[in-house]
Amino acid sequence: MTARKSWRRVDGVLLLDKPTGMTSNAALQAARRLYSAAKAGHTGTLDPLASGLLPLCFGEATKFSTDLLAADKSYECEIVFGISTDTGDADGRILTRSPVGFSAADLELALEGFRGPIRQVPPMYSALKRAGRPLHELARQGIEVERAPREVCIHELRLDDFSPGRCSLLVRCSKGTYVRSLAMDLGVALGCGAHLGALRRVAVGSLQIDDAVSLDVLATLAEERRQGCLLPADALLQSLPRVLLDEAGGERFLHGNRVAVGATAGRCRVYSGSRLLGLGEVDADGSLQPRRVLGGLDK
Prior knowledge:
By secondary structure, the protein is of the alpha+beta class.
């Protein structure tokens, strides 16, 4: 008979380098078991096709897991030209094959049309829902529904490599951007069709893939070194300004009360000494309102 898993409180953020072929939830659960963490969550899914940066939250850090959803993301991707698929990626069924005859200069010219604010139709093979059902479930049943185009922003679109039939790009984009849609639309613009051959996420906000660790490496570490891979909960909040309260102000904040701070209006991370108290928002009159409050967590 297998012994029951003993879960414990673990607080912090793990920057995981997710492997290709694994769902974000499967990666989360694997990491959770390695830490025996009682509470865990991720900061937004990364497609099974994709590898790369998947920030995971444990314990009190899960209160901030949604704060990275609005962050810009950066990807390295390979686009294959001349072949379109029903999923827009390499796992899909081939729909068309077309000759490829454009140059690197033609590609650079086409890329210019995708930089900055653009309107993008979400792919059917996505986690977006219609009447409570994910679009990818409908797509697998051969059902296609109309999707309204959405405005996204491609902050950076850099051509890193080009060879006949394929290219490598660095894409830095706003939330809600689908790189597979970018690949398909680029294929249409070049008149040959295209699909996403490979995708790797290399940054989420200020968090970088160079600081991430793989599940395989985590599994080999002793417990102390594994704990050392965790970042503090405020690693997810570094883009927000820091507001420091005295002891009395900190107590008021922790009990859900407003505190006069005179800081610039907007969302902020709140501390008393070195202790992270939570997430707040400063009103136009300089009054700090608690939004998410932590308990018993030191920075």
